[in-house]
Design brief:
Elements: E1 21-24, E2 27-35, E3 44-49, E4 60-61, E5 64-65, E6 75-78, E7 87-88, H1 89-97, E8 106-109, E9 112-115, H2 119-126, E10 134-136, E11 142-144, H3 150-154, E12 160-162, H4 171-178, E13 186-188, E14 212-214, H5 222-228, E15 237-239, E16 260-262, E17 285-287, E18 315-317, H6 327-332, E19 340-342, H7 355-365, E20 371-372, E21 375-376, H8 379-392, H9 394-399, H10 413-418, H11 422-429, E22 449-455, E23 465-470, H12 475-486, E24 494-498, E25 507-508, E26 526-530
Parallel strand pairs: 7-11, 10-12, 12-13, 13-14, 14-15, 15-16, 16-17, 17-18, 18-19, 19-20, 22-26
Antiparallel strand pairs: 1-2, 2-3, 3-6, 4-5, 8-9, 20-21, 22-23, 24-25, 24-26
C-alpha cells in the first residue's frame, strides 16, 4: 500500500521519494510511504528511522498499515517540508573544502555549533578542489552525484573518500559518484543504508580500482555482501563491523583478492562457520572481535599436522568472544601461517590470577606465533614458556604413559588431545626431571571428564569399552579414537548415544565438528557404534 506516484506540487521535492534517505532534526531514516494519512489532509512521508526511539509506531496508524518498520517503534509520519533530502557530492565538497560566499566562522554538526579554529590558514589550499586526493565528507548530507561529469571535471584526483553517514540511498547512487573518480582506491560508506543493485556486475567499472571498502553499521547481511561482490573485482580489504551478521556462506568466484576481512561486533556464534571463509586464497587477516564464538575446530589429515584451511592467514583477532576452553588455542596451532593473535576479554584469559601465566600457556601451545595481543614474542620468552609448560604438566605426562625412556612412551589419547605439543617439548628439551615437575596446574586447563561405555550393537563378540573422555572432544576425534580401538575407518562409523534420562531413545551424533558437550552427553551414558 505505497502511494509513491502522487504528484508533487512543491518544486523542491525530489521526483522519486519512495526509498529515499532523509535527515530530520539530526535523525536519519528511510522513506517507506508517500501519500495521505486520513483523516488529515495533505501529503505525508512514512519514515523508518535508523534510531527506533525516534519513532512512534511500526508503520500502522489507527488500525491501518501504511508501511513496515524494522523495529516496532521505528516509524512515524512527517510532512515533506521537514525532511532534508540532501545535496549533491560537489555541493558538499565545496561547502567543506572550497571558498564560498557563505563561509562562516561556525558550522553546524547535528544541533551543535562548532567553531572553525585554524581553518583560515588552510582554506585557500583546500579550495583547490582539483588537487584533493584524500577527503572526508562524513555527515555532509550527500545524496546524489549531481550534474553529469561535474565531479570528474572538478576533483579527478580523489583516491581516498569517506562518505560515511550520508543520505545515499542505493549502490547506483554511489556508482554514479565513483565512476567519475578514476583513481578511487579507498571508500568508506559506513552508516548508510543502500538498496542492492539489480545487476551488480554492471557497476564493476565504477569500482575497478577499489582496494579498501568499509560498510560498517549499514545493516548489510553476508548474503547481500556476496551478491554485491561482483562490483569489487580487486577488493583487498573489507570492513563489515556492527551489521548483526549471524550466518556465513562460502564465497564462490568472488572476493578472491581479499587479504583482510573485518567481521567485528556481529552475532557469529558457531566458530566452525568460519570454515566457509577458509578457501579465500589471499586472506591474511581475519578480525572477529566482539562476537559470540566459543569454539572452533580445524580438520587435519593426521594428528599433529596442520590443517589445509586458511593457508595464508597470518593474523587473527578474537577479542571479546566467549572462549572458555583451551581446546580453542590448541586448534589454532593447526594454522600453519598464523603469526599474530589477539584474544583479550575472553573467559579463559581471565580465569587465572596471573595474566603472565596465561600468556605463557598460549605461547607454548601455538608454535608459529610471533605476536600475542600486539606484543612481540622474543625467542627467550618462547623458550621460557615452553620450558615452564614442560614442567607444569610433567606429572600429568607421567600418569598418561610418558616415560624418560622414549621407547616406553605410550601416551593416552586424552593427554595428546589436551597437550598436543608436549611431546615436541620433550624432544626439544628432554623429559622433565622429577624435581622440575609441578604438582599444581592452572585449573582452567582441566576439562570435564565423562565416564562413558562404548558398545557395538551389531558386533556381539565385541566387549564393551570403558573410557574417560573430555566433554570438549569432538565427534570427529572420537571417531579417530574408535578407529585405533576397532580398526574401522571413521568415515564408516555411525555414532549414537543412550542416556538413562531418555529411556528407549537414541540420539545421533550427526555433526563430526561438534563437541560431546553439544549433545548433552553425561557421565554413565552409553555410546553406540555401528558400521
Amino acid at each position: 500500500m505505497f502511494a509513491n506516484c502522487i504528484k508533487m506540487k512543491d518544486k523542491d521535492l525530489p521526483s522519486e521519494l519512495f526509498g529515499r534517505r532523509i535527515c530530520c532534526d539530526g535523525e536519519y531514516g528511510t522513506v517507506l510511504y508517500v501519500g495521505t494519512v486520513p483523516p488529515t489532509s495533505g501529503l505525508w512521508l512514512g519514515i523508518d528511522w535508523d534510531n527506533p526511539s525516534r519513532g512512534k509506531h511500526d508503520g500502522s496508524h489507527e488500525g491501518r498499515r501504511y508501511f513496515t518498520c524494522r523495529h516496532s517503534t521505528g516509524g512515524s509520519f512527517i510532512r515533506p517540508k521537514k525532511a532534508n533530502f540532501g545535496v549533491s557530492f560537489l555541493t558538499a565538497l565545496t561547502r567543506r573544502y572550497g571558498i564560498c560566499d557563505e563561509w562562516n566562522e561556525k558550522i553546524v554538526v547535528g544541533k551543535k555549533h562548532v567553531e572553525l579554529v585554524g581553518f583560515e590558514s588552510i582554506q585557500e589550499e583546500q579550495s583547490q578542489l582539483s588537487t584533493l586526493s584524500d577527503i572526508s565528507l562524513r555527515e555532509c548530507e550527500v545524496s546524489n552525484a549531481g550534474q553529469k561529469r561535474e565531479i570528474q571535471e572538478s576533483c579527478p584526483n580523489i583516491s581516498v573518500l569517506n562518505l560515511s553517514k550520508n543520505l545515499l540511498s542505493s549502490w547506483d547512487d554511489v556508482a554514479e559518484i565513483a565512476c567519475q573518480l578514476k583513481k578511487l582506491k579507498v571508500l568508506d560508506l559506513s552508516e548508510n543504508r543502500l538498496h542492492l543493485p539489480s545487476d551488480p556486475s554492471s557497476l564493476a567499472n565504477a569500482f575497478e580500482h577499489l582496494t579498501t571498502l568499509s560498510l560498517n553499521h549499514t545493516g548489510i547481511a553476508w548474503k547481500e555482501v556476496l551478491q554485491c561482490a561482483a562490483m569489487w573485482p580487486v577488493l583487498e580489504e573489507l570492513h563489515l563491523a556492527s551489521n548483526d551478521i549471524a550466518f556465513l556462506e562460502r564465497p564462490v568466484d568472488c572476493l578472491q583478492c581479499l587479504t583482510l576481512l573485518n567481521l567485528s561486533n556481529n552475532k557469529l556464534t558457531d566458530g566452525n562457520q568460519l570454515h566457509t571463509l577458509s578457501e579465500l586464497p589471499r586472506l591474511k587477516q581475519l578480525i572477529i572481535t566482539n562476537n559470540r564464538i566459543s569454539s572452533i575446530e580445524f580438520p587435519a589429515t593426521q594428528f599433529g599436522y596442520c590443517t589445509k584451511l586458511f593457508s595464508s592467514l597470518t593474523s587473527l583477532s578474537v577479542d571479546g568472544n566467549n572462549i572458555s576452553r583451551w581446546s580453542f588455542i590448541n586448534e589454532l596451532n593447526k594454522l600453519k601461517s598464523l603469526q599474530s593473535l589477539n584474544c583479550q576479554k575472553n573467559p579463559f584469559m581471565e580465569s587465572e590470577k596471573n595474566p603472565e601465566t596465561v600468556r605463557q600457556l598460549i605461547i607454548a601451545k601455538i608454535a608459529s606465533l610471533k605476536y600475542l595481543n600486539k606484543t612481540e614474542i622474543l625467542p627467550e620468552e618462547r623458550r621460557g614458556a615452553e620450558l615452564d609448560y614442560r614442567k607444569m604438566f610433567g606429572i600429568n605426562w607421567l600418569k598418561a604413559g610418558g616415560s624418560h625412556k622414549s621407547d616406553n612412551n605410550k601416551l593416552s589419547e586424552m593427554f595428546l588431545i589436551e597437550h598436543p605439543r608436549y611431546t615436541t617439548f620433550v624432544e626439544k628439551y628432554g623429559a622433565p626431571d622429577e624435581g622440575e615437575m609441578q604438582s599444581q596446574q592452572p585449573a582452567n586447563l582441566k576439562n570435564k571428564l565423562l565416564s562413558l561405555t562404548i558398545k557395538c550393537p551389531n558386533k556381539p563378540d565385541q566387549q564393551p569399552i570403558k573410557k574417560n573422555l573430555p566433554d570438549s572432544m569432538s565427534v570427529q576425534k572420537l571417531k579417530g579414537l574408535l578407529y585405533r580401538l576397532l580398526k574401522v575407518p571413521g568415515s564408516e562409523l555411525k555414532l549414537t548415544y543412550k542416556s538413562s534420562k531418555m529411556e528407549g531413545k537414541e540420539i545421533e551424533l550427526e555433526n563430526d565438528l561438534k563437541p560431546l558437550q553439544f549433545y548433552s552427553i553425561e557421565n554413565g551414558d552409553c555410546v553406540l557404534v555401528r558400521w
